[in-house]
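Appendix B. One record, verbatim.
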Amino acid sequence: MKSIKRKHIPVAILAAGIIFSTANFCGEKATAKILERTDFCLSVTVTGKTYEFRYPEIDYSEGKLYLKNAEEVADEIYYDTLTPAVNADFECFPEREFPFVYKSEKVGLGVDKTALLKKIEKALREKTTNISADEFVEVLPKVTEKELRETTKKRGEFSTSYASSQQKRKSNVKLASSFISFYELDAGAEFSFNEAIGKRTEERGFTTAKVIENGKFVEGVGGGVCQVSSTVYNCALLSGLSVTERHRHSLAVSYVEPSFDAMVSYGYADLRFTNDTSSPVYIVTYADGNKITVRMYGEENRYRYERISLVNQLIEPLSEEIVYTEELEDGEKKAMVIPKYGIKSVGFIEVYRKDKLLERRILGTDEYSPLRGITLVGKKTQ
């Protein structure tokens, strides 16, 4: 008896659309038939747009019409006709007591892809040439106004006065604060004061005013910027953020207590702190010409923070220096530099849950140099 070998049909032939007849493969020659092209056209109308499908998108399979890549087609129609959702948002007005004005979210609308596929399948089965997709699903926004309000709670606020400053210094304070009038610090990110404010140069609008340098008051571009950084520093403490870099001045300043100043110098000394909450922190700063106020907003702060400045020692300044000048009348005196005591101090932060003290933490110890007084005395030469 002759053995009969089973014939293997190449995949390439099947993919080419050739259908083999039910020939008995026992020595008989197989016959093939090319699929006939269909003239069927399906129109799908969705929100005023019409999509037409015909051969080769529509073809036969086992005697039935089908739409090739139907799920991809449904996706394309969905995104082409989608009315996208709009996330809630807000505008910030730093000069206001509560700076945020919210814009509500909007729900989007998209064609129901599952229902659309069923309609297409039914139309092809029944050879219906026109269908309309009239079933839709809501597309929800990622951010709602309620969520925004929950993540823009005030965490801390701090103000300092610069009402008695000269106009040039006031200008520097206002300019520096404008660079962070609204600043978003992402969760886990670190804030750098120098990066946020940038270089203090005349080209960028900063002017010459008094700065502290090596234990003396001297003229320098950007005088007054350290008052902004010190105000930001104290607000960060009251907001419960983790300070990673802070420097004291060489002399004590008048606008904050000892151990609560934050000296900055571009490329040399910075103020840095980290947003270690799970939501963004928004820094809102406003200088009105007399007072600078910094507020920080984010997720609700479950704790309350108190600052404590403890002065351990006063350091006597050197005896007054007398400088004789012909610009004054004989014996006339004029104070050029008012003497100041030096200070040794410690800064603490206390953490409360409601009225219960949970922790008292040392922020650092500081020493500020005394300032020697200088008096001008008139002396005419003979």
